[in-house]
Write a structure and sequence with these properties.
Biased composition (Basic residues): 149-158
Biased composition (Pro residues): 128-139
InterPro entries: GIY-YIG_endonuc (IPR000305), GIY-YIG_endonuc_sf (IPR035901), SLX1_C (IPR048749), SLX1_endonuclease (IPR050381), Znf_RING/FYVE/PHD (IPR013083)
Region (Disordered): 128-164
GO cellular component, one term: Slx1-Slx4 complex
Strand content: 15-25%
Number of strands: 7
Shape: elongated
Distance between the termini: 29 Å
Number of domains: 2
Structural class: alpha+beta
């Protein structure tokens, strides 16, 4: 299973906190929130120790690697030093830290290289209305779970769909067989469509209108 690489935003619930916020990276949001509220001696961060209680506002996940997630975290923590946010105005005089972090987030999601990644934005509190800043790119999935963090269900071994048990056949684009350990086939998700392709054949087919890009965001079934 793919690791949950999450870049999260905490909101301080302490009286008089004035919108305190903290951005971090974790593989387990529930465990990390407990550490922040337990203090620095139990794994929490220096900046959050003794300043709680903290609530997790949201987290972004779907990063392909730890490096991609950590670079997103760093840019969110240091917007003035990041080359990805050259046009973002600095924090305003009376703007609370949590409001500033929420204003930065949609701009980060629209900045390369993260604007090309299949990221997911998961709200653990009701999202603000109106939203601060532009909407995320349309290919980014927005999830709303105002019930907050809950224990993870036990992992179960995935059962492959019945359709994948049949031989894949030939690639609809190049005509060569879609078989072998290094050529996992891609099938069209529409019911009844017989299209099956190699990933390396489908990517340039989708990128015909964006020849300078490497990762396609969408495309029509061949």
């Amino acid at each position: 299973a793919m690791s949950l690489r999450a870049v999260y935003l905490l909101r301080s619930a302490a009286p008089g906190a004035r919108g305190g916020a903290y951005v971090g990276f974790t593989l387990d949001p529930e465990r990390r929130l407990r550490q922040h509220n337990a203090g620095r001696r139990r794994g929490g961060a220096r900046r959050t120790s003794g300043r709680g209680p903290w609530e997790m506002e949201l987290y972004v996940h779907g990063f392909p690697s730890d490096v991609a997630a950590l670079r997103f975290e760093w840019a969110w923590q240091h917007p003035a030093a990041s080359r990805r946010l050259p046009a973002v105005s600095p924090r305003r005089r009376r703007e609370q830290p949590i409001a500033f972090a929420l204003r930065l987030l949609p701009r980060l999601l629209r900045a390369p290289p993260w604007s090309r990644l299949p990221l997911r934005l998961r709200w653990l509190r009701p999202p603000p209305d109106p939203a601060p800043g532009p909407a995320p790119p349309p290919h980014i999935t927005v999830e709303v779970d105002p019930r907050g963090l809950r224990p993870r269900p036990p992992r179960r071994k995935a059962t492959p769909p019945a359709a994948l048990a049949t031989p894949p056949g030939d690639c609809s684009l190049c005509g060569l067989p879609c078989e072998g350990p290094d050529s996992a086939p891609l099938r069209c998700p529409r019911p009844g469509c017989p299209a099956v392709t190699h990933a390396l054949c489908l990517a340039p087919h989708f990128l015909r209108e964006e020849p300078r890009e490497l990762l396609p965001l969408r495309g029509a079934c061949p």
